[in-house]
Specification:
With 159 residues, the protein is mainly α. Helix content is 72%, strand content 0%. It starts with a helix and ends in a 16-residue tail after the last helix.
């Protein structure tokens, strides 16, 4: 679940840089649209978890609030992991900081799961979490299906 939220937040956070790939419903060469991604995510979760209009209206503002908090933490996480420190002390500090960030993400997730449960039944929240994971798996698969270079035939020299 944390991986899927990471993927979602990262996809939304650096969409323009990532976005030459194909997403669901996006043609080749179209830029990634965070708004389109969010709309597709909401539509998919609503359908997969069988949310009523009222349930969706109550759930998604809380979900978006959680995603915003997570996105801020993900940006810190990316900065920590960007460059390997030059010495052992720096590496130790980076590892500890990464661990603290992971715990912070889990605390955010736990806090918001409890908020979801104040609004929806446990079975609905469970279905939402499974739907979110499924959406992100499908999205990553579709991004991985971008145009592939042609493989040279056996015996043919490569250029």
């Amino acid at each position: 679940m944390a991986l899927m939220l990471t993927l979602s937040a990262n996809a939304q956070g650096f969409g323009q840089g990532f976005g030459q790939g194909q997403g669901q419903g996006q043609g080749q060469g179209q830029r990634f649209s965070p708004e389109r991604f969010q709309a597709q995510l909401e539509e998919f979760i609503t359908k997969e978890a069988n949310l009523t209009t009222q349930e969706a209206a109550a759930f998604f503002p809380i979900y978006k609030e959680m995603a915003e908090k997570q996105r801020a933490v993900f940006m810190r996480q990316r900065n920590v992991a960007r460059v390997k420190p030059a010495d052992e002390q720096g590496c130790l500090k980076a590892i500890k900081e990464q661990d603290e960030i992971d715990l912070e993400l889990k605390r955010i997730q736990q806090t918001y799961h409890l908020r979801f449960l104040e609004t929806l039944s446990a079975s609905k929240v469970y279905d939402i979490l499974r739907a979110e994971e499924k959406f992100h798996r499908n999205m990553m698969r579709s991004w991985g299906r971008g145009p592939r270079p042609q493989q040279p035939q056996q015996g043919m020299p490569q250029r």
